[in-house]
Amino acid sequence: MSCQRSFRQGKVDETKFLFLNGCLPSSLMISVTDLKIHYGNFVAVDRLTFEVGKGSVYGLIGPNGAGKTTTIKALATLLVPTYGEIKLGNVSVLNEPEEARKILGYMPDFPPVYDDLRVDEFCDLFAHAYGLDSNQRKNKVEECLGLTDLLDKRKALCKSLSRGMKQRALLAKTLVHEPEVLLLDEPAANLDPKARIDLRNLLRKLASEGKTILVSSHVLSELQDLCDTIGIMKEGTMIHSGTIDEIAKKTNPARTVQVHLTEPFDGIDACLKDFPLVSSVHSMDEDRKLFEFIHDGTSQDEAEVLASLVGKGAKIYRFEPKQSKVEDLFLQVESGEAKGGNR
Amino acid sequence: MNPILLRGIRERLRIKHLIAAGLFSLIVSATIYFTAYLNEANGGWSYNPQTGQMEQNDPSPVKGARHAFPFLLCLQGFYLMFLGTGRDAAITAEEKESGLLDYQRMTPMNPFSKIWGYLLGLPAREYYMFALTLPFLLHCIIVGELTLENVLHLYFVFFSSVVLYHLTAHVIGLVVPKPRPLPGFPASSCWDFTSFFLPSAKQASLFSPS
After folding, report:
1. Where is A5: in which H helix or E strand?
2. Spatial separation of the C-alpha atoms in residues B62 and B71, rounded to whole Å
3. What is the pLDDT of residues B162-199, one digit of tens each?
4. Cα separation of A95 and B137, whole Å?
5. Which residues of A touch B6 (CB under 8 A)?
6. Containing H/E element for A68?
């Protein structure tokens, strides 16, 4: 509030002003700056910097031991970093952990629950602990169990649930106090395919309502559809951060283009040889109706390639750059192919 | 109600627990108390060194109740200091290991509420078993003509010890690497109870006729 009031009185750039006063611009919800976490001599996280906008879903991916869980625990106030700054909105996690806890919901990778409590009692416990009164609690617990598809299991003891159901109960518990920031560590790890789709839709819905979600996952295909931006971690550092397309451009500027033909066209190789920016032309099927080539030019250059093919008689019904999958990016980073980035 | 206390009650005092623990506590308390009480109330036997023979004393309900009191106190100590302390340490260690304690750390309850919630909530079943010994205590106070002031003084010390034991159990639960039954700690609690607490109570003239 004080930041906003002071800003109205002056004529300075809002972003610069807010940063100078230790506040984040309203569009930013999570800001991690130069984070270092050491376990004795072992450096779990090193100089990690990233930002997540309000209402967006950020995916943290990386191999085992990359520092994802450690980072999420530090954001959740459960670990004190060795160095660095973490902000949730305008709340400093290090200086005001109690305030930060009010606005965040954390779901760990292994779903521990109180075995001898019923599912509704488990959610009610946390709604109560977060200060909701009895009527609010009842409604909120019903709502969250409905969102996580556990209404028919609400009277079951937690110990009788499958691991996937425990995961959903944990998500329901995480949502009862309506946190602005959700930190989800491997939320889809134990879920069946339908539950994964439901989870993805739920998280998208929550994001559209303005909640900021940071999710780490090994189910990379899930992140592709779920996340607005991703961060790829390796050995405690952020190798790349940005949208999937941005990272794809950084890791491999050349784009793979797919050409779908209605009937085979033998002159395609000869035709594409005329373009120096085109390489690695190869057929993807036995009928020679699907081709892929790598193109190192702009969209304008691609349009010229398309026009040339059509001009020479190729019957093309689809000509498109191949989507960069998160798996591909992850494997590139894992194998050390990716270079550059924002370390 | 404190949410952590409510959780303890929900978790450990369901109907089946109430029946099982209630029956256990009532049967054991009744057996121990009335065995000790009736033994003395009907005229206990004692050795007379002058005649060298066992002689029967005069029947006295007052003596019977006072004779039964330390047995009842031991039983109450067993419930709260042995079972309750062990339960506290084991659950705390388990919650720390599983990560459940992290959830509680993240809730915005004040630390004092959290501590009281854990102190009273985790051993909820043991407190219930203790509560079922209170009718026997009441009988003991009335029939044994014990002074209320001394009894209150004794139970103040008793509950201070219980709280101290339970707090220590939480600390132990937080530092042990893996959840385990912690048999050593309750055993040492019993040793402390019999070595220090009971002699102190005797010193307070609770067990001798006023």
Report:
1. helix A2-9
2. 15
3. 999 999 999 988 887 765 555 555 555 555 555 555 55
4. 52
5. 125, 128
6. helix A68-75
φ, ψ dihedrals at A213, nearest 5°: -125, 130
**Nearest C-alpha in B relative to A101:** B106
Rounded to two decimals, the pTM is 0.73
Q: Which of A101, A121, A125 has its CB closest to that of B106?
A: A101
Inter-chain CB pairs, A–B, below 8 Å? 55
Whether residue A51 contacts residue A30, with contact meaning beta carbons closer than 8 Å, is answered with yes
Q: What is the pLDDT of residue A204?
A: 86
Residues of A in contact with B108 (CB under 8 A): 98, 101-102, 129-131
- Got the DSSP string for A104-173? EEEE-SS----TTSBHHHHHHHHHHHTT--HHHHHHHHHHHHHHTT-GGGTTSBGGGS-HHHHHHHHHHH
> Is-contact B66 B209, C-beta < 8 A?
yes
Give the residue numbers in B contacting A (CB under 8 Å), as ranges.
3-4, 6-7, 10-12, 14, 98-100, 102-109
State whether ipTM is beyond 0.85: no
Residue B135 has pLDDT above 90, yes or no: yes
Return d(Cα A53, Cα A17) in angstroms, integer.
18
